[in-house]
Design a protein that fits this description.
By secondary structure, this protein is of the alpha+beta class. It is built from six helices and 16 strands. The protein folds into two domains: about 150 residues, Rossmann fold, CATH 3.40.50; about 90 residues, no CATH class. The protein is globular.
């Protein structure tokens, strides 16, 4: 009996409680991981291995139309490279625009996508309250939704189809296998999230790091040799006077401290650049400077969205 979990898409099994897809009874609709998350808000780190190349290959072979879902806080060159490997008709969907501050307009995002990432066509903006894509899918039969884990793919599909079984949670890779939703005469496929190297490797921090409300940008006027500490997760130390604005979840505490970072990497930042802390958000740095950051922190640098 090949039955899949209606929440995450994983094949259900009764043999091993330590493996993904476990249920005590194959008549159940949800695997134990999804059931405990839905009913007890319990986060289980158990994940199947995700292979980006196999996801791209399947999309390119099977899909009629692709919605590639991302959010502004997690845009990076690595993510764009994956998007550009998809050869089928596609839309680049910027989700969660409801959490962005007013200073980040859709025009600014569009200019960033076109000028920095060279995406020039089929850009869509959505949020949890507005993700109606019906007019885009009229002729397609096999429609794939893909993107990073926690980009909001499953929520968009639920809003589109009215199917509320899909797991929507703070877990990393909550969708663990291809989850097929029948909708009218179409099949909507929720793909496992692509895996990229990220600072976000701990499920327990996701409720703090992933914004659920509109972000309040936090600006700091930095004097020489001040360290910004971010929720004791990472730190940044600026060697010159500067102005920095953080576009990061309101729940993540930022404080000034006056001590060195024990172990650090050193990076030169051009003027008016965005320092992307992968998986967490970005920091706009006004003036050219050299910074010290927590060693092995995974970052990108881009021309600022405010240019």
């Amino acid at each position: 009996m090949n039955k899949k979990c209606v929440g995450c898409g994983i094949l259900l099994q009764t043999q091993n409680k330590e493996n993904s897809g476990y249920v005590s009874d194959l008549n159940f609709s949800y695997c134990e991981r999804c059931f405990r998350n839905i009913n007890y808000s319990e986060i289980n780190d158990l994940n199947v291995a995700i292979d980006n190349h196999s996801i791209i290959d399947k999309i390119n072979k099977k899909s009629d139309l692709v919605f590639f879902v991302a959010d502004l806080l997690n845009l990076s060159e690595d993510l764009i490279k994956i998007y550009k490997k998809i050869s089928k008709p596609k839309y680049f969907v910027i989700n969660k625009i409801d959490v962005l501050p007013k200073s980040i307009t859709l025009d600014k995002i569009t200019n960033l996508l076109k000028n920095e990432y060279k995406i020039t066509e089929n850009i869509i903006y959505t949020s949890k309250n507005n993700s109606n894509l019906l007019d885009k899918i009229e002729k397609a039969k096999n429609i794939y939704f893909c993107g990073l884990s926690n980009s909001g793919k499953s929520t968009i599909i639920s809003n589109l189809t009215g199917n509320n079984n899909l797991i929507k949670s703070y877990m990393l890779n909550s969708t663990q296998d291809y989850n097929i939703v029948d909708f009218e005469d179409k099949k909507i496929i929720d793909c496992p999230g692509f895996v990229l190297v990220s600072n976000l490797q701990n499920d327990k921090l996701l409720k703090i790091i992933l914004p659920s409300k509109k972000i309040n940008p936090r600006t700091f006027q930095i004097s020489k040799e001040v360290t910004l500490n971010f929720h004791d997760i990472f730190s940044i130390r600026l060697e010159d006077e500067n102005s920095v604005t953080c576009y990061i979840s309101n729940g993540l505490v930022i404080k000034k401290i006056y001590k060195e970072i024990a172990e650090y990497d050193e990076i030169t930042i051009p003027s008016n650049s965005d320092l992307i802390i992968k998986g967490i958000g970005f920091i706009n740095i006004k003036n050219k400077t050299t910074i010290k950051i927590t060693k092995n922190l995974i970052v990108d640098i881009r021309n600022s969205i405010f240019k």
